[in-house]
Design goal:
With 238 residues, the protein is α/β, with parallel strands linked by helices. Helices cover 45% and strands 11% of the residues. It is built from nine helices and six strands; from the N terminus they run βαααααβαβααβαββ. It binds magnesium ion.
């Protein structure tokens, strides 16, 4: 009778660690942002108009960039985006309390990107996973927890908690310390942001997978090792 034995399975896994970006890779940040803005405005009885989210999104992105480049402080980031937003939409509001309400509503959102949990379930038993996010701790920690992500990610790095953001190499150095300095060629980062995730990862010497669902053009001159438009496509190489 043929006996099946539990022989050594040759495992040609190219990576040991996968670093996942959170916003717009695992968590649907755009939907969260829209929802938080709508709720915070409703508290001021300001009806939500269609162009508001787009306007805020653009202003917030510019403010984050200025913050990541060290041009404005964390406190300035918190307020300036709302000052600019209310000016643009021709409304007035007390920005400090609005910021508090907005951040509260944002922290309570847990929308996920399609296929995220299915992929994490599939990958978690086979790879070491870490979540690496640029964001404010009081927003990211509750969202990560509410979305049920803690069980997949023993290591979670939030830029606000360490004082460095992607793509700064200090962010990746801190992450590598937390995960025990694996060989860089055994680490892959998956993220939607060409600058923060892909350029940051590539310059640190790890492999990169650009999650690009909208089929944006690559205007940065950085070449990701992989590019996918759906998270399900991770199955083709992981
Ligand atoms: Mg992102």
């Amino acid at each position: 009778m043929h006996q099946y034995t539990n022989t050594h399975i040759h495992n040609h896994k190219p990576y040991h660690w996968i670093l996942f970006d959170a916003d717009n890779t695992i968590l649907d940040f755009d939907r969260s942002e829209r929802e938080a803005l709508r709720k915070a405005l409703a508290e001021l009885s300001i009806p939500f108009e269609n162009n508001y989210h787009q306007a805020y999104h653009r202003i917030n992105k510019d403010c984050w960039l200025a913050f990541e480049e060290g041009k404005i402080s964390r406190a300035e980031l918190r307020l300036r985006r709302f000052e600019l937003f209310f000016k643009e939409i021709g409304q007035s509001a007390e920005c400090e309390s609005f910021a508090t309400r907005y951040l509260f509503h944002l922290s309570q959102t847990d929308f996920l990107v399609d296929g995220a949990i299915a992929q994490l379930r599939r990958l978690a038993p086979r790879y070491q996973l870490a979540l690496v996010t640029n964001g404010l701790k009081e927003v990211q920690r509750p969202r990560i927890s509410k979305a049920g992500l803690n069980e997949f990610f023993p290591t979670i790095i939030v830029s606000d908690e360490i004082g460095h953001s992607k793509p700064n190499p200090s962010f990746f150095e801190y992450t590598f310390e937390q995960i025990g300095h694996p060989p860089r060629e055994k680490v892959l980062i998956v993220g939607d942001n060409l600058n923060a995730d892909i350029r940051g990862g590539a310059e640190f010497g790890i492999h990169t997978c650009w999650y690009n669902p909208a089929g944006q053009e690559n205007g940065l001159g950085v070449s990701p090792n992989y590019e996918i438009n759906q998270l399900q496509k991770l199955s083709s190489f992981l």
